[in-house]
């Protein structure tokens, strides 16, 4: 019986890897983020006090290249306090592409088909070989629950519409989703409105602005959560 129980739960196991980087905390009230380490270069945003950032390049004596959840830029090292003793491991920068290509689409279809096949096989093994009816029903129910959440997360296409705003002191005050792939962004730092194209991958909305990729997590139908440059909780009007 134990081997069937183990077989059931191996379906939900996964592995991951993490690249170590130095982590710093912002000490300024609002730390300007620039496109390059030139102090006269264009400002692309700011970070609030207490925000944690990963330093990608600390070779310059005055400016560090940093990475937050959804963007990269250069900031003054004088307003950063190191909170992680992990040494820097420099690696090639990864460029996030928000437009899903055909190869990625085919990969997703193959993944969904394999997942369905695995769930069907698990149900067959449970019904065919588990002698204990109570455990059989429990195991089958677990597989069906996992299948249901898989269906919600990977098969059902999420749709976002309407205007989401925040009442906090953040750079981005609102995101107005006008159509299937277009969002109007209110940037209080630049005092401007701009339009960007976005994609939804799972529970995450991705869009690009000023060569940075921004992320918004879909918490529920009326709440979006941003980190980094888009930090804040945005409620639907």
TrEMBL record:
<feature type="signal peptide">
    <location>
        <begin position="1"/>
        <end position="20"/>
    </location>
</feature>
<keyword id="KW-0472">Membrane</keyword>
<feature type="transmembrane region" description="Helical">
    <location>
        <begin position="109"/>
        <end position="127"/>
    </location>
</feature>
<feature type="domain" description="SH3b">
    <location>
        <begin position="21"/>
        <end position="84"/>
    </location>
</feature>
<keyword id="KW-1133">Transmembrane helix</keyword>
<protein>
    <submittedName>
        <fullName>SH3 domain-containing protein</fullName>
    </submittedName>
</protein>
<feature type="transmembrane region" description="Helical">
    <location>
        <begin position="134"/>
        <end position="156"/>
    </location>
</feature>
<dbReference type="Pfam" id="PF08239">
    <property type="entry name" value="SH3_3"/>
</dbReference>
<dbReference type="InterPro" id="IPR003646">
    <property type="entry name" value="SH3-like_bac-type"/>
</dbReference>
<keyword id="KW-0732">Signal</keyword>
<keyword id="KW-0812">Transmembrane</keyword>
């Amino acid at each position: 019986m134990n081997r069937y129980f183990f077989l059931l739960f191996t379906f939900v196991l996964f592995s991951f890897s993490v690249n170590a980087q130095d982590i710093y905390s912002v000490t300024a009230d609002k730390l300007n983020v620039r496109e390059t380490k030139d102090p006269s270069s264009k400002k692309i945003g700011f970070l609030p006090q207490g925000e944690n950032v990963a330093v990608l390049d600390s070779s310059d004596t005055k400016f560090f290249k940093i990475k937050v959840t959804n963007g990269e830029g250069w900031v003054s090292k004088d307003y950063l306090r190191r909170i992680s003793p992990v040494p820097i491991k420099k690696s090639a920068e990864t460029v996030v592409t928000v437009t899903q290509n055909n190869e990625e689409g085919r990969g997703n279809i193959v993944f969904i088909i394999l997942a369905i096949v695995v769930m069907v096989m698990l149900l067959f093994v449970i019904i065919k070989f588990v002698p204990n009816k109570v455990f059989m029903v429990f195991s089958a129910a677990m597989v069906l629950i996992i299948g249901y959440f898989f269906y919600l997360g990977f098969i059902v296409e999420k749709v976002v519409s309407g205007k989401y705003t925040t009442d906090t002191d953040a750079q981005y005050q609102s995101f107005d989703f006008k159509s299937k792939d277009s969002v109007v962004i209110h940037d209080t730092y630049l005092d401007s409105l701009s339009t960007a194209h976005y994609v939804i991958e799972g529970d995450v909305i991705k869009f690009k602005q000023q060569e940075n990729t921004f992320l918004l997590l879909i918490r529920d139908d009326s709440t979006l959560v941003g980190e980094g440059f888009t930090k804040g909780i945005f409620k639907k009007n």
